[in-house]
Backbone:
């Protein structure tokens, strides 16, 4: 059974940084794409970033490119999301998810964590 557990969220001022972590069990990273999504109140869940299992290629939503960086540590079965230059619009519940293929669609990601809250406010 796949289990994903996010951590690292919190309150940060505009312009600040946070690093989210997603600890995974029951999954082989090389066989799966790992993704980060977010959902703000009253909005649909949106894709943030993904990292392909084999080779580790990364891809991002256009609005996050250059500010967010996804990475992984296969030895620790952990995926990270480094977020810089945070804006109030980045406030959301951030989820980690796994998929059998590279996708930006939440429907293609089968396993999900519970999410970690990120609040950007002064």
Residues:
């Amino acid at each position: 059974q796949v289990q994903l557990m996010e951590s690292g969220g919190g309150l940060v001022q505009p312009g600040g940084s946070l690093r989210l972590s997603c600890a995974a069990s029951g999954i082989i990273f090389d066989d799966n794409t790992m993704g980060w999504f977010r959902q703000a109140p009253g909005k649909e869940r949106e894709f943030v970033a993904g990292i392909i299992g084999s080779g580790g290629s990364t891809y991002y939503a256009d609005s996050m490119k250059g500010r967010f960086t996804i990475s992984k540590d296969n030895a620790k079965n952990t995926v990270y999301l480094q977020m810089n230059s945070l804006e109030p619009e980045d406030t959301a519940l951030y989820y980690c998810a796994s998929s059998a293929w590279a996708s930006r669609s939440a429907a293609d990601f089968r396993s999900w964590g519970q999410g970690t809250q990120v609040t950007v406010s002064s």
